[in-house]
């Protein structure tokens, strides 16, 4: 009798959530959209600012030093961020992280008038702390909230919204500096003020994100029954990541995934184009990211029934495309004539090749990073574990970026930077394939029905990780097909 009542109750919950799935504030889709909007306003605008090369300044030294400080602290707090998120939860973690972006944009507004880089460097270091918190929280949300068999789709939804921030952020300097032509090399005050306004909005929006325990999927199950952790536990779990073979296989991919920004921003966009064209280029660069994330998200969710096979195909697609784009970059670098500055209206056909290359860089960046996030999400379902995994990824990624910005500050040739980027990204593909083959398990029939994945006890004993099946408590649950969610959005 009790069992029948429980089944009937579970069915009623499922039907209720199904009927209002598009409008529920506590649905995974709504929360992914909200975290996308937060990142639209904060790191999205930061990306637009960085994408202009030199932070919009004629001399890139201040920006390079600020970014080095940023990624140095980011490397530390990226790794610690997962543990901090597990202790503080999403509200405090995201709010603290987002507030540091406003300070960073304000430091360049100050630099426009005083030309003192100390404030920019300090603001960069503070932003590194905040970014570590924000991205660890974002990674946990993006990889643990969605249904297991639709993580690629949800990642592409997030990535599209997030990179719309870069598109809008690129329009700001393009519009405000449109009439300057070749006269202006430094963006005006209004550009920085516009960035600060968006970043402030994102800080407020961060308070709308729900903890995993309050997010309910359309089948009536909660994403995870996460209990907030403690400092001692998180320290031990973070230390374990450094000898976790899964994480070690991801280090080249993590290191290279922001390493290439220095070359793309400072030696393609900044060196080859004038200011207003740089803003226009960024509109298309971040727009290309939206296309790339949707394409790879579809491939890694729908191309084959086998999850492992989808992962392998996705990695191979990115590897082939990446090799073609880096080959095109070498050809462009060989042809580039020092001192020739391109304008989208006045340079004619000479503008087309470098513009297409920069657009392709955006496409590759989104596909590469979405591929890595999908790979992380395929390793576990539990929010606690995934927050540590994504924090580790962002920490290593930021360490690579800190090194890259200082390499550029020491005047290493653009061709040398290009070759290093190509080698690093190429090295990451076979290691990710090994990860797919050895670590990613196929869905069982039970997993296909419920959208959940149980880790076997032997693997838990080997890795020391706690992988739980979120929301699975023995009650009846109904599966809901999310295959149309991208089109419903």
UniProtKB/TrEMBL annotation:
GO cellular component, one term: membrane
Chief location: membrane
CDD domains for this protein: MFS_unc93-like
Compartment(s) where it occurs, according to its Swiss-Prot or TrEMBL record: Membrane
Keyword terms of this UniProt record: Membrane, Transmembrane, Transmembrane helix
Residue span of region Disordered: 446-480
Protein's membrane topology: Multi-pass membrane protein
Transmembrane segments: 29-49, 69-88, 94-111, 118-137, 157-178, 190-210, 243-263, 283-300, 312-334, 355-376, 419-440
Biased composition (Basic and acidic residues): 446-465
InterPro entries in UniProt: Ion_channel_UNC-93, MFS_trans_sf, UNC-93-like_regulator
Domain of life: Eukaryota
A Pfam family of this chain: UNC-93
Signal peptide annotation: none
Protein name (database record): UNC93-like protein 1
Organism (species): Vicia faba (Broad bean)
């Amino acid at each position: 009798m009790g069992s029948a009542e429980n089944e009937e109750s579970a069915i009623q919950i499922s039907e209720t959530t199904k009927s209002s799935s598009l409008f529920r504030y506590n649905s995974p889709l709504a929360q992914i959209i909200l975290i996308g909007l937060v990142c639209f306003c904060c790191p999205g605008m930061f990306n637009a600012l960085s994408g202009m090369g030199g932070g919009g300044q004629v001399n890139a030294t201040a920006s390079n030093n600020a970014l080095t400080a940023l990624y140095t602290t980011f490397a530390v707090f990226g790794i610690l961020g997962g543990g901090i998120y597990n202790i503080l939860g999403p509200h405090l973690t995201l709010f603290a992280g987002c507030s540091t972006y406003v300070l960073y944009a304000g430091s360049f507004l100050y630099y426009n008038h005083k030309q003192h880089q100390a404030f920019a460097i300090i603001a960069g270091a503070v932003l590194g702390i905040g970014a570590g918190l924000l991205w660890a929280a974002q990674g946990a949300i993006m990889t643990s909230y969605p249904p297991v068999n639709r993580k690629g789709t949800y990642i592409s939804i997030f990535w599209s919204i997030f990179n719309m921030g870069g598109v809008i952020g690129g329009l700001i300097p393009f519009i405000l500096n449109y009439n300057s032509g070749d006269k202006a090399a430094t963006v005006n005050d209004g550009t920085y003020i516009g960035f600060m306004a968006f970043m402030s909005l994102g800080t407020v929006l961060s308070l709308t994100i729900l903890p995993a325990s309050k997010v309910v999927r359309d089948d009536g199950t909660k994403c995870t029954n996460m209990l907030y952790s403690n400092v001692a536990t998180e320290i031990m779990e973070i230390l374990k990541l450094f000898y976790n073979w899964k994480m070690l296989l991801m280090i080249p991919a993590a290191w290279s995934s922001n390493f290439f920004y220095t070359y793309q921003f400072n030696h393609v966009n900044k060196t080859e184009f004038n200011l207003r064209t740089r803003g226009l280029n960024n509109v298309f660069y971040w727009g290309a990211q939206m296309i790339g994330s949707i394409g790879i998200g579809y491939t890694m969710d729908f191309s084959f029934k086998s999850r492992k096979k989808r992962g392998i195909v996705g990695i191979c697609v990115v590897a082939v495309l990446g090799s073609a784009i880096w080959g095109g970059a070498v050809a462009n670098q060989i042809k580039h004539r020092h001192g020739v500055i391109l304008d989208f209206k006045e340079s004619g056909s000479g503008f087309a090749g470098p513009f297409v290359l920069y657009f392709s860089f955006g496409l590759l960046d989104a596909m590469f990073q979405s591929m890595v996030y999908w790979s992380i999400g395929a390793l576990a379902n539990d929010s606690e574990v995934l927050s540590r995994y994504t924090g580790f990824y962002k920490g290593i990624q930021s360490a690579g970026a800190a090194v890259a910005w200082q390499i550029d500050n020491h005047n290493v040739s653009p061709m040398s930077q290009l070759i290093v980027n190509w080698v690093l990204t190429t090295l990451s593909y076979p290691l990710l394939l090994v990860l797919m083959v050895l670590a990613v398990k196929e869905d069982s029939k039970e997993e296909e029905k419920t959208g959940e994945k149980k880790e076997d006890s032997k693997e838990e004993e080997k890795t020391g990780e706690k992988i739980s099946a979120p929301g699975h408590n023995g009650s009846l649950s109904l599966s809901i097909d999310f295959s149309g969610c991208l089109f419903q959005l």
